[in-house]
Amino acid sequence: MMVIQHSSLSQTIDILLNWCADNDILIDPRLQVRGDDDGAIGVYSNDICVIDPGTSLVHIRKSSVLSARSCCLSEYMPHIFSGPESQLTLSLALYTEMLNARSSRWFGYLQSLPSHTVDLPLFWGHGSSMDDTSHDRDAALKWLKGTEVERCLQRQPGLSLEAINSYYTDVAEPLIKQRGLSSIPNLKGFHRAFSLVSSRAFLVDAYHGLSMVPIADAFNHSLENQVHLETEFNVCSQCGSFEECPHDDDDDSGDPSSKNIHSPVNLHAMPRQDTIHSGLMDFDAYYEMVSNAPILPGSEVFNTYGETLTNAQLLCQYGFVVSFNENDHISWDLADVYQSFTNTSVKHSLTLSGLEAGYATVLRNLVFHGVFARLSESSLVYRHSEAPHSDLCLDGDGKISHQLWVALAFPFCVEGNGDNSSQESFDVISVLDKLKALFELQLAVEWQVEIGVASGDSSRRHCGNPTASRLVRLAELVISLCSQRKNSLGAHVSGHAAELDLNAILDAVPHDMHRTRDILNMVITERSILDSCESSWKELSAAVFL
Ligand SMILES: C[S@@+](CC[C@H](N)C(=O)[O-])C[C@H]1O[C@@H](n2cnc3c(N)ncnc32)[C@H](O)[C@@H]1O
């Protein structure tokens, strides 16, 4: 195993920067790579002037990135570019170089990486029960039940601890032992490599795929960010060529547009100001970190690891959370929604597959039918366009996504369509008409609530109206979905999170139990989102007056 011989973070950074110079990684002199008191690295502006957007600040020679293509065991590795397997393959690539220690051509870079396994929830259940963090880990694991963190962990079965351990035993260890690297491998070391890949890797192009990119990975994350990595993804997947190459003929797709199209990832339409090199430079040989916002003198320069990442996603992949995250939301899948029907008095005759098929059909036809033409007028439903994991969610204000609204309202609107209501075929137009009428009525009632006319003649006109009855049942479902979720938060803990004074519990947790504190803060956020949604729909339901 590699032993770091340096005595301080600044020495580590010096070694890194010397290695960068030797490996043709060019950093604008107005940037400074610096350590902080916690031993972490960040990038800062050390200029006295603002650095303009569109400035190319770091050039990273493509051959300097560490990937399954470039590592010492490359010829024995599959080249997989996406999905869980690409993370495992890159972990193996990184681990082999870590085992090579000083003889690795990335030693100067590797010695600058965190020397411990990044603290991902994935590993919390499997640390030593003897160490002084075990109490914190155990408490955090109990509180994360039913939260978005648990859902994040479950969403990637291919990257569960069991899957990682099996990959190590079945693939990584045998290959490393067979090739006889300088150090003996062990599972703990592989976990560290995996955690570094999870928290630092970039998908750069069709040749290197997921890669460790020195210096690009020294920037910390913020939603208010100033730089991003720019790469040309569509290079030749066999030789990395940006130009025409002999492998072009190997592409038998017959689609000429699939060959060597150089559409950049993260392209910002700004004039480029290359300040590093005044002479001739082969730009195709580099990836670049480019500014996308003004960088103030002396400030830290941030990248974003994803514009839509929630705290649960940040914690699971990168091991940290931010204090206020506007992306935080609560998600369900269709099976959860279906389950909620059976937990209420709402009668329906749908099967889960009927709901899945109906939901998909309705979503495809929504726009043409204008169901949500007046969506912007609603204070309870929002248009959810980004769907990295789930469409069925509540946003940070407790509004439901239009997809969740459809999934919940569909059973009431499909009933009465003959015997097909439990089948996968139904009269689409009739269902869309009912959904539209339902949403229009909801807007009218929302308006009544807003102006304070929650009783009186205007609402009595809903009496006996089947659309009004659907609206009440929809509200019942939303309320039930929220309360079920609240009851499942920290489900193990004596008493449901829904009833506990979570702020008092948080106050009593010592500050060094940061995992428990982070998770409790998330439980508090999730409960307040659910409370807010539940109370608005109760108010709406009370205003319908059947
Ligand atoms: C790509 S690295 C960034 C460089 C890193 N600070 C280092 O010392 O090498 C990602 C890691 O930096 C830390 N990090 C990045 N952004 C952060 C933020 N906004 N708050 C707290 N930690 C952050 C986390 O530990 C994360 O796993």
Automatic annotation (TrEMBL):
Family matches, as InterPro entries: SET_dom, SET_dom_sf, SETD3_SETD6_MTase
GO cellular component, one term: nucleus
GO molecular function annotations of the record: protein-lysine N-methyltransferase activity
Gene3D superfamilies attached to this UniProt entry: set domain protein methyltransferase, domain 1
GO biological process, one term: methylation
Region (Disordered): 246-266
Domain SET: 29-306
Protein name: Ribosomal lysine N-methyltransferase 3
Gene it is expressed from: RKM3
